[in-house]
Design brief:
Blueprint (H helix, E strand, L loop, with lengths): L3 H14 L6 H12 L4 H11 L3 H10 L10
Helix pairs in contact: 1-2, 1-3, 2-3, 3-4
C-alpha cells in the first residue's frame, strides 16, 4: 500500500495533463518518473480518475516495456 502523499502527487499529475482517457500514457510516465516505478495502486487510482477501466490501464502499462511495477531501491 502506498502513502497518501502518492495519491496527492497523482492528483497533481492528473490535473496537469487533464482527467481524460487520452492522457493515460503521459500521466503514468510522470508517475513512474517520480517514483522510478509504477505503483499498481496508483494505476488503478488513475484509471478511475480518468474514466477508463482498470483492465485497459493495465493493458497499456504492460504493453510498453518501459513501465515497471517493481520498486527498485
Amino acid at each position: 500500500m502506498v502513502e497518501q502523499s502518492y495519491y496527492e502527487k497523482a492528483d497533481a499529475i492528473i490535473e496537469e495533463h487533464g482527467a481524460k482517457p487520452s492522457a493515460l500514457i503521459p500521466i503514468i510516465q510522470d508517475i513512474q518518473s517520480e517514483y522510478r516505478y509504477l505503483p499498481p495502486e496508483l494505476l488503478s487510482y488513475v484509471a478511475d480518475k480518468i474514466g477508463i477501466t482498470e483492465a485497459k490501464a493495465y493493458g497499456v502499462a504492460t504493453f510498453y516495456e518501459n513501465f515497471s511495477f517493481e520498486r527498485t531501491d
